[in-house]
Structure formats: structure tokens, C-alpha cells
Specification:
heterodimer, A: 453 residues, alpha/beta, Glutathione S-transferase Yfyf (Class Pi), Chain A, domain 2, 4-stranded parallel β-sheet, 10 strands, B: globular
Chain lengths: 453, 228
């Protein structure tokens, strides 16, 4: 499917609780017209392209104990063995042993591993994309210490190069690369939104300042679905009296290039943010309420840039926690009980589990942790691009029931998170199950309870 | 040369050769791969502290224990049982002493100054039986659990076979349930040699690789401050 087809044949759907492309009448889960044999070859070459010692060790160490299944929400919610995390990379393990490992000759000689076929890769598309949010719970349980989630990311590199990405995820990633946003938040739309919001809320929203200490960024889910997050960010930054700005040349922090597995697009998307921060001389780049944006820039940004970043990268929850800890941010007490849904890439995978809790404490809420909670919290089921894929809806709803049960058990009044992708997954689940709980944004709670100093 | 002579002599030498060079080949083949430096600003600079994962992953987190307890219990039973039989049975000790003596010119007693303790043959038989029972239970679990059955391959079943075979032949030799004794002993030695030969090629290598994997993952996660 060509680029223009994506816009005309598969327009965006921005009226439903979940923002994606409209449900395709005909699915295009294969991109390009590469011959099958080449697809397999490309998949494997790109899988091993970034293969260092650690990933190779991972390939060697699995003993097939099957424990990773017990940590995976897709397996636990359905009982289907194919959702066992390590099984999701089976064709890549097979190809590694047969083609690249130290005993490749031995595996080929005895034909212990057969050659991977394109049919196999197509079959695995659902396992690598629809039923894996790369939440990393499996990486937490593996007794061998294999970071299975990182292997899924490498396998997605292979799948993307082979042109085997699910229709919707490819469409939004391609749109993001071409227009600067997966959901149509082009620089023009972004500027109009800022103008409208500033007017509507009678607030100064700094845009395109040539110099700033703090560069704030957004998720297009916020720009298109939760614009109040933009107002909340401005309100807090103004309240703190910081020299801050949004930039129309680097505002989109989501990275669908990374989620689809396109390393080149991932780099382009990260470079926009990095160059915008460098251009305005920012000392801190604040990432929005978005989980994977944190993984993409905080932990992978310097590696795609090729050198250490000349500024600090913080998730908004970390930034707010820092302001609270330094005594610059005082908040009115919110006399309610709350429970916190950990965005996987920020808490478990990102190391910022404590930040949101510091902020919630400053908000004076009675925090009721989920069981399991914090680092072991269940994923909402929408991460890793899964929420965009219509084909995955029924499965995602099953997984979401784990989450609803967890939240119900806390009996907390307010569920809170710091990821707009989790939030839209909750909105969608809420509508589907006619649930009475609405997910709240930590950022918006803070902005609504600023204590004048 | 009869079967026992072969098993004791050239058989054991060939097996040890494959064992040692196979391990080296596989480890070196992986460890020599380059690793790109991580340029992200570490949350915690002392990444080496993540090496605590080498120990911490010996037991699952509280949140996972309920769902994995059976596998953990059976796994520990057979690993510990196997080790006990291997290093606390007098004939094994004498064999290892002999190997030490040939390699470094002194036996273990001469090296560490104390005698290695050992258990009576009866106790070893009980431990061996428990170990075999745990291995059989794990095999049953492997073929009956939909998850394990799906993800298992030749390596899993063959590695099981070469692990259980020395235990069974060893117990047969000790109990004299089959005669002539030299043939049973030869079978025991040959089964050990099969284990040694298969070790570098299949999943038995995890006995060495998991420590490197846990250390690598632990350090990468510690850098981020991510959950270990």
C-alpha cells in the first residue's frame, strides 16, 4: 500500500475512545512486494543486526521452563500456550541456532532446526505484535535472567524490514514518519491547538521560544484526545516560573517507528526532539505522560544520537517529583483514595516507579497499591502498539479484565496513571465493559491542585 | 579391550575432550561478540551492583511464587539431589580425586588439607531415587502442560535422558540388580560420557550461561534503576 493510500483508504478514527486508523475493511498485513525468500532473509539479518553479546547469550540460555507464561497477561487471561513469551520469538531463536550461533553447522548438519519460512513469520505476526505489549513482566520472572521483552523488540526489527507489520501499526507509524504525528497532529494542527487552548483557557502557552531551559514535549494522544494535558503542562510550568517552551519542530514524543520495529524511523523521530532541545539550548527535556516515549528517548535516545545527550531527559512524573522534593511545588490536598497504574516503560522497565508515588503523596491522597503492584503491576494491555490494532481488540479486552479486577480490589476512588496510551486503553475498556471507573492523569491532578506560593 | 576398559579409558578421554572444547567453543563464540556501549545517562552509576541478580534470580519474586511453586520445588529437588549424588558418594569422590591427582599432581586432601565428607551408599540411593522421581515428575509436567509441551524440542527430551541415565545406571550398579557388574559399571560410565558429550551442545550449558546472562541483564537493568 502506498503512502497516500494510507490517508485516503484508511483514515484516522478520532471519535472513539481509542484513537487509531479506522477498522480496515481489507487488511494489509504485508508491506511491499518483496519475494518471500528475501523477506525471511531480511527478517533474520535485521534481527541479528543489533545483536550484541547479551542478546546472543539470551539465545543460548533458555531451558524451556515455561515460567515466563505465568508472568504474561496474555497467557494468564486466556490460558493459550502460544502466548508464552519465549515462544513469541521462536522463529528467530530457530534461525539464530541454525544460521548464526556457535554451533550453527551442527544444527544444520543434523537438521535439528529447520529453515524459517515466510508463512511461519506471518503466523508469528500476531504473537509479536497483537499479543505482546513489551511490558517486561516476563523479563522479571525468567530464572535464567533473559530480557525477553528486548528480544521481542529485536524480532520486530526483523518483521518490519521483512514488511510484515500489522496493518494499523504500520499505517500509524508511516503517518508519523511522513506527517510528524501518528494521529494527524501535524505542526500546523499542533500550533492551532495551542492557539485555541491558550485562548479558551486564558493561559500563556509558550511555543517556539528560541531559548528555554526546559523543553516540554507531548504525545499526539494528548494533543488530539486529551488537550487538557497541554493546558496542565503550561499551567504547572508557568506556576513554577520556568523558562520553558513547546517547539513545533520537536513536540511529538511518541515513537511508533520504535513500536513497529523500524529503526530508521525511530531514529528520525527521536532526532526531531533532540535537535529541538539543542536548538533552544534546553537543559532538560520533559517527556509527556507516555510510557514508550520514555523508553525511546530516556534509554535509547543517546544511542540513536551516537553520543551522550547534551541535556537531561525526564518523564513528567519524575519532573513533578523533583519539583516536590525540592520544595518548589506545593499542592492542595486531594482528600480521596487513589490507586496508581504503573506505565510499564516508566516503572518496571524505566526505573521511575517511585516518582509518581512521591507526587501522589504530595497530593495527600490515600494511596492504595494494587496487588501485584508497582514494578510487578499488570500492564493495561494496550502498550507496544497493541491498542492501535483492531484485530487484537477481543484479546485486549480479556487482558483488560485482569486490570479491572485489580483496580476494583483496591476500592480506591480515583485510578491514576501517567501514560496517555494507558489512559486511552482504559477509556476504551471502560466503554466496552460499561465500567464506572475513569482513569485520571497524574499531570492533570497536579495542575488542578496547585497551591499558590 | 572390553567395554569397561573402553569406558574407563579412551571413552572417558574423548568425552572429556568434547566436553571441554565444546564448552570453550560455545562460550567464546558468544562472548567474543561485540557489544555496543550504552550511551544513556545512567540513573545509577554503579551498574555492577546489578550483578546481585546472579543470586536474586535463584528464587522468584513473591508475586510470581504461587504460579511457579511446583516447577521451582521439583527443579530444586532434582538439581540438589543430582549434586549430592555427584559429590557426596564415595566412589565418585575417589574418581574425582584420581582426576585431580592426574591433573595437578595432588589429590583434594593434599590441596585443601581436609577430607571431603561423604554419605553412605544407602543414603545416596534414597537421594538418587528422589532425584529420579523429581525428574520423572518434571518430564510428566513437560508433556502434560500445554505451555511446556509447545515450547519443548529435541534438546529438552534428550537432555532429560542424558541427565537421568547416569542416575539410573549408577543405582543399578550399586544395587547389583543386573549382572555382570562390570557391564553395568561400563554402562554407567558410558551414560556419564554421553552427558559430557551432549553438555556443550544443548540446554545443559545453562549451568554456565545463566550466570553470565543474569549478570548482563542485572547490570543493564541497574543502569536504568529498573526492577531486577
Amino acid at each position: 500500500m502506498s503512502a497516500t493510500d494510507v490517508d485516503t483508504v484508511h483514515p484516522l478514527e478520532l471519535e472513539q475512545p481509542r484513537f487509531s486508523v479506522k477498522k480496515p475493511e481489507v487488511r494489509h498485513d504485508r508491506q511491499g512486494d518483496t519475494p518471500d525468500a528475501q523477506r525471511v532473509e531480511r527478517a533474520m539479518r535485521n534481527f541479528v543486526r543489533d545483536f550484541g553479546r547479551t542478546a546472543a547469550l539470551y539465545m543460548e540460555a533458555c531451558v524451556h521452563c515455561g515460567m515466563c507464561a505465568e508472568a504474561c497477561h496474555f497467557y494468564v487471561a486466556t490460558g493459550k500456550p502460544e502466548y508464552t513469551p519465549i515462544w513469541k520469538i521462536e522463529p528467530f531463536k530457530q534461525a539464530y541456532k541454525r544460521e548464526y550461533g556457535p554451533f550453527a553447522f551442527f544444527f544444520r548438519l543434523l537438521n535439528l532446526k529447520s529453515k524459517v519460512t515466510v508463512g511461519q513469520l506471518q503466523e508469528w505476526q500476531e504473537l509479536l505484535y497483537d499479543s505482546c505489549t513489551m511490558c517486561g513482566r516476563c523479563s522479571l520472572i525468567c530464572p535464567a535472567g533473559i530480557d525477553i521483552s528486548s528480544l521481542v523488540a529485536l524480532a520486530r526489527h526483523g518483521m518490519c524490514e521483512a514488511g510484515l507489520v500489522p496493518h494499523e501499526l504500520w499505517a500509524v507509524a508511516e503517518r508519523a514518519q511522513r506527517q510528524g504525528s501518528p494521529l494527524g497532529a501535524t505542526p500546523k494542527v499542533f500550533k492551532e491547538r495551542i492557539e485555541w487552548l491558550a485562548d479558551e483557557h486564558e493561559i500563556d502557552i509558550a511555543l517556539d521560544k528560541p531559548e528555554a531551559d526546559v523543553l516540554c514535549t507531548l504525545s499526539s494522544i494528548e494533543i488530539m484526545k486529551y488537550p487538557q494535558s497541554i493546558v496542565a503542562t503550561a499551567k504547572i510550568m508557568n506556576h513554577l516560573g520556568l523558562a520553558w517552551t513547546f517547539r513545533s519542530d520537536g513536540y511529538e514524543a511518541t515513537n511508533f517507528g520504535m513500536l513497529a520495529g523500524n529503526a530508521e524511523w525511530q531514529k528520525d523521530m527521536s532526532m526531531k526532539l533532540i535537535e529541538a532541545a539543542v536548538a533552544c539550548g534546553a537543559r532538560t527535556l520533559v517527556l509527556p505522560e507516555c510510557g514508550h516515549a520514555y523508553g525511546a528517548l530516556r534509554w535509547q535516545g543517546a544511542n540513536v544520537y551516537g553520543r551522550p545527550l547534551p541535556f537531561q531527559v525526564m518523564h513528567i512524573s519524575e519532573f513533578l517529583a523533583q519539583q516536590v522534593e525540592q520544595g518548589r511545588l506545593k499542592l492542595k490536598p486531594l482528600a480521596k483514595s487513589a490507586t496508581y497504574h504503573d506505565p510499564c516503560q516508566v516503572s518496571r522497565r524505566g526505573g521511575a516507579t517511585a516518582a509518581a508515588r512521591t507526587v501522589l503523596q504530595a497530593l495527600g491522597v490515600e494511596l492504595r497499591e494494587m496487588t501485584p503492584g508497582a514494578d510487578a503491576n499488570w500492564c493495561c494491555g494496550g502498550g507496544g502498539g497493541v491498542v492501535t490494532i483492531h484485530r487484537a481488540d477481543a484479546l485486549r479486552y480479556k487482558v483488560f479484565q485482569l486490570k479491572m479486577e485489580q483496580i476494583e480490589r483496591t476500592q480506591a476512588e480515583v485510578p491514576v496513571t501517567a501514560c496517555s496510551n494507558c489512559r486511552q486503553t482504559f477509556d476504551d475498556g471502560q466503554q466496552h465493559f460499561h465500567w464506572d471507573k475513569t482513569m485520571h492523569s497524574l499531570l492533570e491532578l497536579v495542575a488542578g491542585n496547585l497551591e499558590p506560593t | 579391550m572390553d567395554l569397561l576398559d573402553f569406558a574407563r579409558g579412551p571413552g572417558m578421554q574423548y568425552a572429556l575432550f568434547v566436553f571441554v572444547f565444546g564448552i570453550l567453543w560455545r562460550l567464546v563464540g558468544v562472548l567474543l561478540l561485540a557489544t555496543k556501549p550504552d550511551l544513556s545517562e545512567p540513573r545509577r552509576p554503579a551498574c555492577w551492583k546489578g550483578m546481585r541478580m546472579v543470586l536474586s534470580r535463584f528464587w522468584p519474586r513473591r508475586e510470581f511464587l504461587q504460579r511457579t511453586l511446583a516447577t521451582e520445588a521439583l527443579g530444586y529437588t532434582f538439581h540438589i539431589g543430582f549434586l549430592v549424588v555427584l559429590v557426596f558418594f564415595l566412589p565418585h569422590l575417589l574418581f574425582l580425586e584420581d582426576v585431580f591427582k592426574r591433573l595437578i599432581g595432588t589429590n583434594l586432601h593434599g590441596l585443601i588439607g581436609v577430607s571431603w565428607p561423604y554419605l553412605s551408599g544407602g543414603v545416596i540411593m534414597v537421594v538418587g531415587a528422589v532425584t529420579v522421581a523429581a525428574l520423572i515428575a518434571l518430564l510428566v509436567h513437560r508433556v502434560t502442560s500445554p505451555v511446556k509441551r509447545l515450547i519443548s524440542n529435541f534438546d529438552d527430551y534428550f537432555s532429560w535422558l542424558v541427565t537421568v541415565a547416569p542416575l539410573i545406571t549408577g543405582m543399578m550398579a550399586y544395587a547389583h540388580v543386573w549382572r555382570p557388574y562390570p557391564t553395568v559399571l561400563a554402562l554407567h560410565l558410558l551414560s556419564v560420557e554421553l552427558l559430557l558429550v551432549w553438555f556443550p551442545f544443548g540446554k545443559l550449558m545453562h549451568a554456565l550461561t545463566i550466570f553470565a546472562v543474569r549478570a548482563a541483564t542485572g547490570m543493564a537493568f541497574e543502569r536504568k534503576g529498573a526492577a531486577l
